[in-house]
Design brief:
alpha+beta; 5 helices; globular
């Protein structure tokens, strides 16, 4: 079924952007709680390109690297005039038992995240796990209290479709700025038809 949706969404002429990125499919419905305790619906960011990451604040592996890389991407988007107006970030905890709103606020400050359009989300454990599964992510407890998980950052287009999945190695500011620019630029009409 997912394959049929992906193929249908990749049909010629269905892409309203100038981007060469494939339309992987719609992002899963994601309604959680932001760091200030307010309900947050990912769909509220429609009209912007959005980077979605999954982290937990006590991670000593890829999560700090991912958040630091996203901080560099945010700075590059700001310098390109895209931050806030055309681009936003969402970071979803994978450890809701520990990562309260207050803890996520401290984490955001530690990484100097621009909270104007970078939303750190938590929520009840069952909702977090539903969201994690919906994004085709997974989390496994490790001995000693850590979590094993994939390191993926999803790029959504302004219509809420997944257009790229980065790993930490490919989350490079210049490349992400170009990907975002292609997603938010108005589509040019073909003069030949």
């Amino acid at each position: 079924m997912l394959l049929a949706v992906m193929l249908a969404s990749m049909a010629i002429g269905s892409d309203p952007t100038n981007s060469p990125l494939a339309d992987i499919g719609p992002a899963p419905r994601t309604v959680l709680v932001d760091a200030s305790g307010k309900s947050f619906d990912l769909a509220s960011l429609r009209g912007k390109a959005v980077l979605v990451s999954f982290i937990y604040t006590t991670c000593n592996g890829t999560c700090p690297g991912t958040t630091q890389a996203m901080t560099r991407v945010q700075k590059a988007l700001d310098e390109a005039g895209l931050w806030g107006k055309s681009a936003a970030f969402v970071s979803i905890t994978m450890d809701p038992a520990h990562d309260s709103g207050k803890i996520l606020q401290q984490y955001a400050r530690l990484f100097r995240a621009d909270n104007s359009d970078w939303h750190f989300l938590t929520g009840p454990s069952e909702e977090i796990h539903r969201v994690i599964r919906g994004w085709d992510m997974w989390v496994k407890p490790l001995p000693g209290g850590g979590l094993d998980h994939p390191s993926r950052v999803f790029l959504l287009d302004p219509q809420g479709h997944i257009r790229e999945i980065y790993n930490l190695e490919f989350l490079q500011p210049k490349a992400v700025v170009e990907d975002v620019r292609g997603l938010v630029a108005p589509r040019r009409k073909n003069p030949n038809g």
